[in-house]
């Protein structure tokens, strides 16, 4: 259901005049979860997630793609970059406030995709004005955040999952069956 809502939401973005949206995702699965160097490539599952991301976002109106200068973030953005014929620009996420200033200056009317890391996306979200605590677990790759800035107010933020993660990451994302109702309301 959330993926359907996201698809509908993203479908109307290009029709909103001067409405900027920033979509943030973590890079897809890397070849080894313990490796953190700059040159760590995506695993087969990560390559598949990158293709899924491109398929989900190809009609979203994205006009700019940013990623950090690691192999895994650029490989996650590459299928969409190729599909939309857009270059992948470098974004230094070590300074979230500076990155957001750059986005506001260079891309005030664009729909932007940022591919980052589990430890940098929370800082970017906070710099964008979203002050709820965000935690992304080390084995969690399915988060997609859509941030819509609103003048003089906190941004609207939608957090959805795309694809599936391997492990049990966060109780909020576990599927819990709804209780079965044994009788209709008002029935004896």
Q: Please, could you describe this protein's structure?
A:
With 188 residues, the protein is α/β, with parallel strands linked by helices. It has helices spanning 2-12, 44-57, 71-84, 96-106, 121-127; strands at 21-26, 64-67, 88-90, 111-116, 143-150, 153-161. A six-stranded mixed sheet has the order 3-2-4-1-5-6, covered by helices on one side. Helix 2 packs parallel to helix 3 and helix 4 crosses helix 5.
* pLDDT averaged over residues: 83
Q: What general outline do the C-alpha atoms trace?
A: globular
Number of strands: 6
CATH top level of the domain at 17-114 is Alpha Beta
Would you identify the regions where 5 or more consecutive residues have pLDDT less than 50? 12-18, 168-184
Question: Gap between N and C termini, in Å?
Answer: 33 Å
CATH T-level topology of the domain at 17-114: Rossmann fold
Largest sheet: 6 strands, mixed
Q: In percent, how helical is the residue content?
A: 25-40%
CATH superfamily of the domain at 17-114: Phosphoglycerate mutase-like
Secondary-structure element order, N to C = HEHEHEHEHEE
Number of helices: 5
Question: Structural class of the secondary structure composition?
Answer: alpha/beta
List keywords for this structure.
globular; alpha/beta; 188 residues; Rossmann fold; single chain
């Amino acid at each position: 259901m959330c993926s359907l809502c996201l698809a509908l939401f993203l479908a109307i973005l290009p029709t909103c005049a001067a409405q900027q949206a920033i979509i943030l995702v973590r890079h897809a699965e890397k070849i080894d979860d313990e490796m953190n160097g700059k040159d760590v490539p995506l695993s087969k599952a990560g390559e598949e997630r990158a293709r899924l991301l491109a398929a989900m976002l190809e009609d979203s109106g994205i006009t700019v793609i940013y990623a950090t200068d690691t192999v895994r973030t650029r490989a996650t953005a590459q299928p969409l970059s190729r599909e939309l014929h857009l270059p992948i620009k470098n974004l230094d996420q070590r300074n979230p406030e500076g990155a957001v200033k750059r986005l506001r200056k260079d891309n005030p009317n664009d729909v932007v995709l940022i591919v980052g890391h589990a430890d940098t996306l929370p800082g970017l979200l906070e710099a964008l004005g979203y002050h709820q605590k965000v935690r992304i677990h080390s084995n969690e790759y399915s988060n997609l955040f859509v941030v819509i800035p609103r003048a003089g107010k906190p941004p609207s933020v939608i957090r959805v999952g795309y694809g599936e993660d391997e492990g049990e990451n966060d109780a909020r994302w576990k599927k819990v069956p709804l209780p079965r109702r044994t009788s209709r309301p008002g029935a004896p």
